[in-house]
Specification:
Length: about 400
């Protein structure tokens, strides 16, 4: 019995020893926050604490190149034995008397593992730089990224409310990219500045922006008749020109020099003898910034006035589908009558028609609906003798409010 007990203890001891022997070497800082260290300009010594279970070596170098330095940084001790206890090294750096931040790297190597401590020593002279120092925003709006370097916390102050800065503050020793933005300028050439401050240091970024504005809606629709004119103005602090892709839509002044005030202009539109048509206008300044507009002219729809149309419509409401007769009269370009009920035209061209009808009560193929709202969308055939389309709406049927959909087809 005693022999068995001794043998068991031997195996347990042997197993524990084997596991300890195979434990991989570890190397880690006492605190991860200590891997980045910001220090003062004066010459001084600092400590770094770490754990290393295996033998280690330490060295320190400078990003600027040690051969260019009168005094070199040093580290002590430069080596040590592995231990489970907390260990430390001291590094000493000379005074930073140049006008930029010095960056040192303290490296501890243990077997195949290594720790690198980044040490930034700010300049006694102070550092604050911004690039670019001036910028011209596009007239239509835009932004620029300003690269900022500072060895102290910084803030930005904006002179004018049309310039946006993000972020407007930051910490020292961190690479910063600040976005300066401006919206579309419709008022006149303008200038401003952004002031950056860090400790007692200041830097200024001067910004400016040309103006470019045309007093036209992006899209507009005019009647078929003519000739008639559309007045507008152009405000541009750069020379500009305007072009039209349609001969029936011409511009009075096609080019002009820069101006501090709006320049009045005029568009002439001829009568439309045919189908619906669209002209596209482009206004361009000498920085190749462009503003685009469209003018759509309806065709002469009088041939549709007081026309009667008849056919069928198929309606579906929940589980009920019915097909029945339908008739419609196009009264003018604003009004229709559907099965004796008035409707309002929402859109009307020589190719399409869209109208809506409100019905308090309607009986259709054996069912009666109440408070019906329906929108009809249709397309004319090539010879304009037929219309086919879809409808959607909502109404109450047998006490239940239902969505209604369907199709319709009419001819004259």
């Amino acid at each position: 019995m005693n022999k068995a007990y001794i043998l068991l203890c031997f195996f347990i001891f042997y197993s524990c020893s084997w596991g300890t022997h195979d434990t991989p070497a570890s190397l880690r800082p006492y605190s991860n926050a200590s891997l980045i260290c910001n220090i003062a300009p004066a010459s001084n010594s600092y400590g770094f604490h770490f754990y290393s279970s295996a033998d280690w070596e330490a060295f320190i170098d400078c990003q600027q190149g040690e051969e260019e330095m009168l005094e070199r940084p040093s580290v002590y001790p430069q080596s040590g034995l592995g231990s489970s206890s907390l260990q430390s090294v001291n590094f000493t750096v000379p005074e930073n008397n140049i006008d930029q931040t010095l960056t040192y790297y303290l490296t501890i190597v243990s077997g195949e593992r290594s720790l690198v401590v980044t040490i930034r020593q700010r300049s006694e002279l102070g550092i604050l730089s911004v690039d670019p120092a001036e910028f011209l925003f596009p007239a239509l709006g835009g932004s620029v990224s300003v690269e900022l370097e500072s060895n102290a916390d910084w803030t930005a102050r904006v002179e004018a409310d049309w310039v946006t800065v993000a972020p407007d503050s930051g910490r020292g020793y961190e690479d910063a990219f600040v976005s300066l933005s401006a919206p579309h300028n419709r008022t006149g050439y303008r200038t401003s500045s952004v002031l950056f401050l860090a400790d007692t240091m200041t830097r200024v970024v001067n910004v400016s922006q040309h103006a470019f504005h045309v007093s036209l809606p992006l899209e507009q629709t005019v009647s078929f008749d003519g000739p008639h004119t559309v007045g507008f103005s152009v405000l541009s602090s750069l020379p500009w020109e305007i072009s039209s892709d349609a001969a029936w839509c011409s511009v009075q002044t096609v080019a002009h020099d820069e101006s501090d005030t709006a320049v009045d202009n005029q568009i002439s539109i001829e009568a439309n003898p045919g189908v619906r048509r669209t002209a596209r206008l482009t206004v361009k300044n000498t920085h190749d910034e462009r503003l685009n507009y469209s003018i759509t002219q309806n065709s002469d729809l009088r041939a549709f006035y007081d026309t009667d149309w008849s056919g069928t419509a198929t309606l579906t409401a929940a589980f009920i589908t019915r097909t029945g007769s339908m008739n419609m009269t196009i009264v003018d370009d604003e009004n229709v009558i559907v099965r004796g009920y008035p409707g309002q035209i929402l859109e009307f061209t020589d190719e399409t028609i869209r109208f809506q009808v409100f019905l308090d009560e309607i009986s259709y193929e054996g069912y009666t609906g109440y408070d019906v709202t329906a929108v009809f969308t249709g397309t004319f055939s090539a010879d304009q003798s037929r219309i086919s389309g879809t409808l959607s709406g909502r109404g109450t049927l047998m006490g239940i409010t239902l969505n209604v959909s369907g199709t319709w087809e009419l001819s004259r």
